[in-house]
Amino acid sequence: MKVGYLGPSGSFTHNVAVKAFPDDERMPFANITEVIKSYEEGVVDYAIIPVENSIEGSVHETLDYLFHQAKIEAVAEMIQPIKQQLLATSKDKKIEKIFSHPQAIAQGKKYIKAHYPNAQIEMTASTAYAARFIAENPAEPFAAIAPVAAAKEYGLEIIAKDIQEMDENYTRFWVLGRKKYAFELFKCQQKVSLALTLPDNLPGALYKALSVFAWRGINLTKIESRPLKTALGEYFFIVDIDNTNEALVTFALEELHLLGIDYKMLGNYDVYKL
Amino acid sequence: MKVGYLGPSGSFTHNVAVKAFPDDERMPFANITEVIKSYEEGVVDYAIIPVENSIEGSVHETLDYLFHQAKIEAVAEMIQPIKQQLLATSKDKKIEKIFSHPQAIAQGKKYIKAHYPNAQIEMTASTAYAARFIAENPAEPFAAIAPVAAAKEYGLEIIAKDIQEMDENYTRFWVLGRKKYAFELFKCQQKVSLALTLPDNLPGALYKALSVFAWRGINLTKIESRPLKTALGEYFFIVDIDNTNEALVTFALEELHLLGIDYKMLGNYDVYKL
């Protein structure tokens, strides 16, 4: 079986792919759109992409593509703790320039300020690219902020461990696929994710949509508006709901339709903690 | 009077500053945080920052800073249409590399693919920086995607006009200040923006918060969740409400407090169309 993921090797998504599909053929793609397309075109059987981080928020590229352009559902969610390391080609390296993804730079800001106040900062497309780049330039005074997996992948030393500011840093990843897969991982929740489009001619439409879940005691774990890209102030709504009582959720979804509220199913999935 | 804005000269925010405060001293700052800080520290009397674009969505740097770190309110909102131009130092320039902000690049993607399929793309921190950079390198085969104001500011030619993909492209800007200001512009709406923090021990808290507005017929123009940066799945909610009936909104806010739902006022403002 083939599994696509947001590459390169050593990225957080790669780490999820290794844990979820240890024995399958894993294929890296350069960006989120390419990963989703590889699945749409049948190049891979499952695809893994990031959806939301506890500090930075939703990954818009993922949610916008799934809403606007794809007919694909998430069949599993993986929650992974995010820990950042300062890496270099050797432990006694003089460090004048630090490379990483903007989110990782933001996460390591306090550490860098305290230990390398004069270092130049360079933004890269991902943490794994930063690691690969400094590994390819061992003569330069370079360091990278990246996960442990990137150190292993590119033969780098960990100069400082877990330099991220907040301990409570997690990312949600979705596994896209045609059917659920029984992962040998710790399952902690069942959820459904919907994208609601509200009719213009239904006053208080969002309130009514939420009522459908509220009076049944169905828990909402997330609600977020995203621009419909038509006009300012027109949104679709991403809603994650607890799917422990599947029959009750089925009734709620039927009632949404009866009220004239359209929804697109983004996923019906089990949640696993890594 | 001094007015801070997200610079440099020629940016969309600069354009708003010129229209809103034509006769005042306008000061550019390098990023959104610097603009807000200049206001907090009393360097400027008003500050102008982008809040939301109709295609890309909210500007998280603005909303997160105002929620987490500042005690500042928006006193006006300016809505500006966004139009992108392809600029170069002369009309017959050979174009091999195109510079711009990622959002403007995304907006002009179709045009570039059709007319400059082989051009290299370089991302910059803002459209105005891209314009300034190509103006400083007139011997190179460079072009930039930027607004009309940037062409004027840096003496560039417009090679192609309005290359953005969607016509319905608008950005909301907030004017931060201590008191409302009577702008000589077209006023179209009155709004209040709140950041709600929901108590853990109130089941269906979001639904209850929305009920406070719904049964009074107060229109919500936006609702969006942002991570609280504490744990995955903990959010605050940015809610924009129509403030045409101010007395009714006052009652609704009082009732929110009585229900145990905290809110931070992000702004109470008139909306102007530019």
TrEMBL record, chains A, B:
PROSITE patterns: ACT, PREPHENATE_DEHYDR_2, PREPHENATE_DEHYDR_3. GO terms for biological process: L-phenylalanine biosynthetic process. Pathway: Amino-acid biosynthesis; L-phenylalanine biosynthesis; phenylpyruvate from prephenate: step 1/1. Signal peptide: none annotated. It is an enzyme of class 4 (lyase). It comes from the Bacteria. This is Prephenate dehydratase. The gene is pheA.
